[in-house]
Amino acid sequence: MSFHEQDDPQLRAAQDERLRAAWAAPKGFFLRWTDTNNDAVGAWYTLTAFGFMLLAGVLALIMRAQLAVPENDLVDASTFNQLFTLHGSMMMFLFAVPMFEAVSIILLPQLLGARDLPFPRLSAFGYWSFLLGGIFVAGSIFFDAAPDGGWFMYPPLTTRTDLSGLGADIWMLGLSFIEVSSIAAAVELIVGVLKCRPPGMRLNLMPLYAWYILVVAVMILFAFPPLIAGDLLFEMERLLDWPFFDATRGGDPLLWQHLFWIFGHPEVYIVFLPSIALFAMLVPTFARRHVLGYPWIVLAAVGTAFLSFGLWVHHMFATGLPKISLAFFSAASEAVAIPTAVQIFVFIATIWAGRVTWSTPMLYASGSLAVFVIGGLTGVMVAVAPFDWQAHDTYFVVAHLHYVLIGGTLLPLFAGLYYYWPLITGKKLSDRLGRIAFWFLFVGVNLCFFPMHLSGLEGMPRRVFTYPAELGLGSLNLASTIGAFIFASGVAIICVDLARSPWRPFAERNPWHAGTLEWLAYPHDEHWGIRSIPLIESRYPIWDQPDFMRKVDEGRYFLPDAEEGRRETIITTVLDARPISVVRLGTPSWKPMLTAFALGGVFIFTTYHLYWPALVSGLLTLAMVMWWVWTGTAEIPERPSKPIGHGLELPLYISGSSSPGWWAMFITMMADATAFSGLVFGYYFFWTRHADFPPDELAHAPGVFWPMLALVVGLVGWVFTVGGREVHARGGVALARAMLAASLVASLASAAAGLAGPWLSGMNPSLHSYPAIVWTLAGWTAAHAAVAAIMLAYVLARSFAGRCTPAYDADLRNVTVFMHFFALTTLVTYLTIGLFPEAT
Amino acid sequence: MSDPERSEQHRKWHQQLRITLWTLIIPPTAWAAHFLFSYLWAAISCAKTGRFATFPVLFVGGTVMALLVILFSGWLAWHKERTPGDPPPHEDSTEVDRLRFLGKATLLLAGLSFVGVVFTALPVIFIGDCQ
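Structure tokens for the assembled complex are given below, as produced in the milestone run.
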């Protein structure tokens, strides 16, 4: 196809038809829920997260009503505990993080000129997991069974089953399930940003939103897994009585605080940065100029991401750690103010240098910056340990965190809502209602939370369901309550505005006259994402590249057709976005939803101690995943390559480190390795905290022999896989199969030897934290060996079925990535449990 | 070997070092490694010896090493950023603009990471005990 062929309107119409057919959404009362396209899944995701936000907001209003006057009896202490625990947990896990994922699933393909993200079915799986887990956790409040230990669930209050009921299990298992969906989203978004950019969009031209999303998704990989590791230990204690957090049996409740806050503090930035990313898109649009200081924003995003992992102990200033340790975290907490301020100054400079249109989104953006800066400044105050000792666990902290989260996450999201609503629905929201709502929100947030600084300093503790009149805090609390209801009225006005949207006329295309790719979308939606994938020469192609929209619409760029009726997008290189391949994307299917429900069964049945149904659900999940992967991935194309226009011919299959699948495996395993390092941290943490770790009677358990045997056999398995991959690539299929089979046997043997160590030395995990953590590490590694065996069996089956050949070997290459990480896990586990006790 | 040739060779060794998305994160990774090292050093020496080292050789060595890594990557990034071409902003779809952008961003991160490492080192000077 040449440039000039696209002059033919009949050809263009035929292409339109083929694209439309390939991307048609499934219809029907049931079938529509099998959709996997980002516009559908992203919209469901956003609406669901918004719904959870409203529910969590109502919980807050009940709390404020209870606290309006001293010695109130609207709700009792137990209900109040459930209210604040669920309010915090839902806002964080069911609103802020999923909302960022949801918005990114909608926006990212548009911003990158891609037809969809690389793994649409994975997005759908993430959504269904989120929905099920969210309903499970949020629904518990209606059965008086909600978690009540505070959103950070400190043991021993929450690990002792006589002090906390089912709610703690619901929190742990329900939210673990949701964390799975967050990691799924992180994989999808990272691979999307790195590999699905349009040709020419080098790293220096990437929309800033994509930079932020890349950074935040990487943060998720390092922040969520420690919490998953913590959840695992926590549930082992609650369900099996393994004493990780029980000080009387060699455990330590502080281990939970560490694992929780290694997640919990980066989490704040995980929800803050994507909201700021929305500013990076809308500020240049309304300032009518390119953003100033693009590399400074990249500095701010990357710098904040790193520093945010050095802040976690500032939540633990009052735990009695050595002051030198506190000071390290205090220093990092002060340092993070630098990159945070840099991005705010960049936005101010861009506004200053531009010709600003004071639109509704801009009003929200500037208002939220003001609120956020107040929260940031009190943050600098509480980052100083001696001040924090005074303010700790008072309403001062409540005020600080709400200023940060409302100014840094919620109000920017409303700015984004007003800005991007026309992109999603084709219609603008009402400027008038938007502005009225803004003033309700702005006045409400300040009236609600500013007095809390004062009530906190005067001694109002957090998490009390009532307070005596003699404290003299009645009027401050009443002001806060009035503010909360004013704020809620603002949210209600926005809801009214949204509800009226279907009756409004369509807006013009690109109604804000923005310069970035996402505004190529038509008001009347086409599901194909983009008509042809453009060649990018500027950060603001709609402004800078002549005739850009027309050329895209007339299919004059790449991949303007779907000749084979398949959903396709272009894969490019990481640094310079050179096109290297066309991938076929997943189509609508029941598989993601059914897999999510099966996996949900594992978590939900375990909560109620129904272990047999949980096991059945686990096996069902495995079967579903196998079915999904077998039928939907690494498909051998009908021909090796296809033309995408302008004389370019791209392969339809790639494997190894340039392929999206390889990256997805690598990223998933990074998360897995991080969770594992959380467990290893636990082992060494116990050693630093206790003089008797390992205890004398277990000083030579599990011994050296079995761990070393497991290590050697495990590494042999790894060598066979790597060797098998090389032999296979050179055409030695039969030998490669034999090597993979040997690797499979070695993996299983390694698992058996690894478990034999603690088993044969009679280590009882419920007696002491030492045998418990040794069993956990050995069990984790054995489970990975079992997964390795399943994967190797899968590759062998693919090979015998003719679906994995020397020319088409993505399955084998991806499994090799898993095996690298398996080898690393094996090495660390067995050196630790085998040799470390001998060395101490 | 004539002088222009030598300067040509001299220029080349650092120009051959590629700068990518991975090198962008070297300075903050050095900060992170130093931070983790500091935390573990303090925690282990306080927990296991019960007192603070009077002259923390290990700590000083680790800090100097982190600062050197950051300075080196900053210096390299500064060179890349000065690759000849149009004035900033580096927003054309060209190899040289991508290179200069990555150089600039890495240089800025090196600055932030340097400050971060110094911040982390200060408590050791000013606190100096395990209480």
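Chain A is about 65% helix and 0% strand. Strands of chain A lie at 568-572, 579-584, 641-645, 648-651. Further analysis is deferred to the final report.
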